[in-house]
């Protein structure tokens, strides 16, 4: 950073919030700071962020945090024990510690969420921006394909794809990603229809930029924030879909400690040994709620009209 653009001592806040930034870097940092201020004012969003960060730390340190093995139990002495000091969340029908299985199951949840976001969001962003900028026959064809995917409930369509691909966590991720991109395409197309009429897009066209360059360099970056917000809000649905596939035996296979599969295993004992199904169900509820709160906060923070 040059001396001309550097803020005076104690003037970092004024430098970041300047109405007339002197460089791209200052403008980008100012937008990021303004977004963080808007986000941090939302206490529920901060709570959601704290839970998501805690989930990340738990997944990273699962081997150190889990008091027992998530795969090995003792049928003679620890089968279906209620919550106690030795087993905080009790044990399941195989004598395995439920808390340890939930801790290790957080890795599978993050694996599904991250991979689905990496696969589905770029597909939806590309389809939506290309359709919105191209218009005409290309727009009609891409949107009709999108409508076909939107016409089916996500879980039902994911079940069909997993049935065709075969059970397993990897195939479940692919199936969920295939069914998750249409809403992102709709959002990106709506944003593109507005952006393509802007004066600076016309100026770029007059300078001789190709359509692909315009879409990739000038339209997609402006659609990313809306897609990020929708992806974050969809995390809860992705978790529930993955849990539903696991509950039906089409997701992670035993003895993998996946939360949906744990609920399916506990449904046989739900009346007498309620903790077997209640503990993973509570984990799904808390994590899904956290992503919803985080998504609401990001929606407010990434809205350029609301950042101050």
From TrEMBL:
Q: In what residue span(s) does the ABC transmembrane type-1 domain sit?
A: 106-295
Cell compartment(s), UniProt: Cell membrane
Q: Which PROSITE patterns match?
A: ABC_TM1
Q: What InterPro entries does UniProt report for this protein, alphabetically?
A: ABC_transport_permease, BP-dependent_transpt_permease, MetI-like, MetI-like_sf, OppC_N
Note whether Flavoprotein occurs among the keywords.
no
- Residue intervals passing through the bilayer: 44-66, 108-134, 155-178, 227-253, 273-295
What is the top-level taxon of the source organism?
Answer: Bacteria
Instruction: Write the record's keywords in alphabetical order, separated by commas.
Output: Cell membrane, Membrane, Peptide transport, Protein transport, Transmembrane, Transmembrane helix, Transport
Q: Which PANTHER family does the protein's record reference?
A: D,D-DIPEPTIDE TRANSPORT SYSTEM PERMEASE PROTEIN DDPC-RELATED, OLIGOPEPTIDE TRANSPORT SYSTEM PERMEASE PROTEIN APPC
Q: Would you tell me the protein name for this molecule?
A: Nickel transporter permease
Starting at the broadest rank, the lineage of the source organism is: Bacteria, Pseudomonadati, Pseudomonadota, Alphaproteobacteria, Hyphomicrobiales
Task: Tell me the name of the encoding gene.
Answer: nikC
């Amino acid at each position: 950073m040059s001396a001309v653009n550097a803020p005076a001592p104690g003037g970092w806040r004024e430098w970041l919030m300047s109405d007339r930034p002197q460089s791209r870097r200052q403008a980008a940092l100012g937008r990021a700071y303004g977004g963080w201020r808007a986000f941090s004012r939302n206490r529920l969003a901060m709570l959601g962020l704290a839970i998501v960060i805690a989930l990340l730390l738990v997944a990273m340190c699962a081997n150190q945090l889990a008091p027992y093995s998530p795969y090995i139990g003792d049928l003679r002495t620890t089968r279906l024990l209620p919550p106690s000091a030795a087993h905080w969340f009790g044990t399941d029908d195989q004598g395995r510690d439920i808390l340890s299985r939930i801790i290790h199951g957080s890795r599978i949840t993050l694996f599904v969420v991250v991979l689905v976001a990496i696969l589905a969001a770029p597909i939806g962003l590309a389809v939506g921006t290309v359709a919105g900028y191209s218009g005409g026959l290309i727009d009609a064809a891409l949107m009709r394909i999108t409508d076909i995917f939107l016409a089916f409930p996500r879980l039902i369509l994911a079940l069909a794809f997993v049935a065709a691909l075969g059970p397993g966590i990897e195939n479940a991720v692919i199936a969920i990603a295939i069914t998750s991109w249409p809403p992102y395409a709709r959002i990106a197309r709506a944003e593109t229809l507005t952006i393509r009429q802007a004066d600076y897009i016309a100026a770029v066209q007059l300078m001789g930029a190709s359509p692909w360059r315009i879409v990739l360099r000038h339209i997609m970056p402006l659609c990313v924030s809306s897609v990020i917000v929708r992806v974050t809000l969809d995390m809860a649905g992705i978790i529930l879909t993955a849990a539903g596939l696991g509950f039906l035996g089409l997701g992670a296979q035993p003895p993998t400690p996946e939360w949906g599969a744990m609920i399916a295993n506990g449904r046989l004992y739900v009346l007498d040994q309620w903790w077997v199904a209640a503990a993973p169900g509570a984990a799904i509820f808390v994590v899904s709620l956290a992503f919803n709160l985080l998504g609401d906060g990001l929606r407010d923070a990434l809205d350029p009209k609301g950042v101050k």
